[in-house]
Amino acid sequence: EAGVAQSPRYKIIEKRQSVAFWCNPISGHATLYWYQQILGQGPKLLIQFQNNGVVDDSQLPKDRFSAERLKGVDSTLKIQPAKLEDSAVYLCASSLEAAANYGYTFGSGTRLTVV
Amino acid sequence: KQEVTQIPAALSVPEGENLVLNCSFTDSAIYNLQWFRQDPGKGLTSLLLIQSSQREQTSGRLNASLDKSSGRSTLYIAASQPGDSATYLCAVGGNTGGFKTIFGAGTRLFVKA
Fold this sequence. Notes:
The structure holds two protein chains of two kinds.
Chain A: E1 5-7, E2 10-13, E3 19-24, E4 31-37, E5 44-50, E6 53-56, E7 65-68, E8 75-79, E9 88-95, E10 105-106, E11 110-114
Parallel strand pairs in A: 2-11
Antiparallel strand pairs in A: 1-3, 3-8, 4-5, 4-9, 5-6, 7-8, 9-10, 9-11
Chain B: E1 4-7, E2 10-14, E3 19-25, E4 30-38, E5 44-51, E6 56-59, E7 62-67, E8 72-77, E9 86-94, E10 100-103, E11 107-112
């Protein structure tokens, strides 16, 4: 089966600019996650979708970050305006259901550098 | 609040050595635990998934164990190879405020040829 697709692979922007990331999960996977991974740390959940509804966005900095999953398939994550501390790898993952029995499949990530 | 700790943070071993990576968690009420591998600049690759009712899972040279009562999991790698060099992360799935997965910071493994 095809994996989780993410684009772009790399992005360099200046602070205060905006940026968007795209994710296409594995076909049939109802649950989609966006994680932020700062260098040297484990991934931190930003937002979790179940189909096209938000299940958990408690750690999403909503003053600058937004995400949507239209039609319950592809998703976009946007940062506006970006700050230096947003430099990280943004990982998208999907799972069959948001249940305990299913593991995650991750995409290759988008490495964001804010200068 | 669930906290996941991985020790050591980094490990260097000669090729052929058997090794153990450790993961500990503070809340034993978990649903599952998953081990991942991450190569530099890449995403995470799932290695093993252990359900809360299981005690271990095996895949090739990898064996992961789970002891919920003590809040520990280990990843055993047999006959290590230079190609095993990567960062290994454990992720604990729980039910804190809904189903959430918390990641450890990882162990960076370097296998010397």
